[in-house]
Specification:
By secondary structure, the protein is mainly α. 78% of the residues lie in helices and 0% in strands.
Length: 429
């Protein structure tokens, strides 16, 4: 188990964390602009739901397939250097794509390749940042910090979607890509000066230094396998992602084909969704959620499902109903995701968090590629709305299942004695 010195005391300064956080926020704005610009370019260039689905697939595969391996490396490597390297690789890949657009040599597969590389970099950066947060922020503040993160994400959605649409009208796409390269420096440079704590190894752990990569991976798998609530949570997330990921990756076609809209309609829908995230994140940051964080997450899950259903049920002349659904879904998203991440940061040992976060990400996203492969051709035939209706219904169903599950409701109790034995490999079959 982790010892008290593994975490900073509540009285320690949060200045290093917020310095790091601010640089990352600026970098994320550039990344959001690139994401918007590339997806809209694919929409306008191909007009194909299958192409958009494949683009989403290219951006997901690295974190799904390589996630368990990445988690082991994040727990073994210096997390500050890991974040620096990940951000640098993403910036370099974006620079290459900007050059291809500049010489007018870009092809669809180039965009897929860069989306793949950017996702790979993010696959290293996200668990390194999340697992470092638990060592830089007092435990009592973790839920509020996650609320702040969700507020940031919503704010970026508000700013980046209309800004992306505006920039596409006044500059070539390579100009937007170069903005991302510049903003990446705000994330990289502070890491040269900020101390990012590493997990402390137990003083009597004589095998820590000699542990192999595969032994560490096995330990991480045993750790997760022995925690039934985590397994159930991963299963629920897998099902939800199976239906929601295709729906939102195809949102540009929902706007153009169903509502007859433009890039501005897409931008404003995403901005309103982001506004909901800002308000939900601000509420979570100020309120902190229910005492038992899982109750806050389940409440948010109910709301997310209702919001997605509103989008799917909106008629062709009901764009504003879809906007309302996006706002509801956005507002409930921080209440769903923030407390879950805080639960892991508060209850999972720091030296295991890289593996746990990447396993959660990999397994919860594992069915998304199947959904994308199916969604593209089906949406081309039946229309995109079907995925929003199914996605909303399934999300509500998962909220019902979670609310009735004693194992999930007890997730904050930690692992039982038998679970601890399983993590050490001593539990009986």
């Amino acid at each position: 188990m982790m010892t008290e010195p593994s975490r900073q005391s509540d009285t320690q300064s949060l200045k290093p964390f917020f310095t790091l956080w601010t640089g990352q926020a600026i970098s994320l704005l550039g990344s959001q602009l690139v994401q918007f610009a590339l997806i809209w370019w694919l929409t306008q260039t191909t007009g194909s739901a299958t192409i958009l689905a494949m683009a989403s697939l290219a951006g997901m595969l690295p974190q799904i397939v390589l996630g368990p391996f990445v988690g082991v490396l994040v727990d073994r490597w210096n997390r500050r250097l890991t974040m620096m390297a990940a951000d640098s690789v993403v910036a370099l890949a974006t620079l290459v794509l900007a050059y291809l657009f500049w010489i007018e040599a870009v092809q669809t597969w180039h965009v897929f390749a860069i989306l793949f590389v950017r996702s790979l970099g993010g696959g290293f950066h996200w668990p390194a940042m999340q697992s470092s947060t638990s060592l830089m922020v007092p435990e009592a503040q973790l839920t509020r910090i996650q609320g702040l993160n969700q507020t940031l994400q919503g704010g970026l959605n508000i700013a980046s979607a209309p800004l992306g649409a505006l920039l596409l009208g006044i500059m070539p796409i390579q100009g937007i890509l170069m903005i991302d390269v510049v903003t990446a420096l705000f994330a990289i440079v502070p890491l040269f000066f900020i101390f990012v704590p590493q997990p402390e190894q137990a003083a009597d752990d004589s095998t820590a230094k000699s542990s192999t990569f595969w032994a560490d991976m096995e330990a991480g798998l045993r750790y997760v396998w022995g925690w039934k609530a985590i397994l159930m949570l991963m299963g629920m997330a897998t099902i939800i992602n199976l239906v929601l990921t295709p729906a939102f990756s195809l949102m540009p076609l929902l706007i153009t084909n169903h509502f007859g809209g433009t890039a501005w309609h897409l931008g404003w829908l995403e901005a309103v969704l982001g506004g909901g995230i800002v308000l939900g994140g601000a509420l979570l940051s100020a309120w902190g959620g229910f005492k038992r964080r899982i109750f806050t997450s389940l409440l948010g899950l109910w709301g997310m499902g209702i919001g997605v259903l509103l989008i799917g049920l909106a008629p062709a002349n009901g764009y504003f109903l879809a906007v309302a659904g996006g706002f509801v879904m956005g507002g409930m998203t921080p209440l769903t995701n923030g407390p879950i991440l805080a639960i892991f940061q508060a209850n999972v040992e720091p030296e295991m968090q890289g593996r746990v976060f990447t396993l959660l990400s990999s397994l919860s996203m594992g069915m998304s590629p199947l959904g994308l492969i199916i969604a593209g051709p089906v949406a081309d035939v039946l229309g995109v709305r079907s995925w929003y209706i199914v996605g909303g219904f399934v999300t509500v169903l998962m909220a019902v299942v979670g609310s009735l599950s004693p194992a999930l409701l007890r997730i904050e109790n930690g692992r039982s004695h038998s679970t601890l034995a399983a993590a050490e490999g001593t539990v009986q079959p």
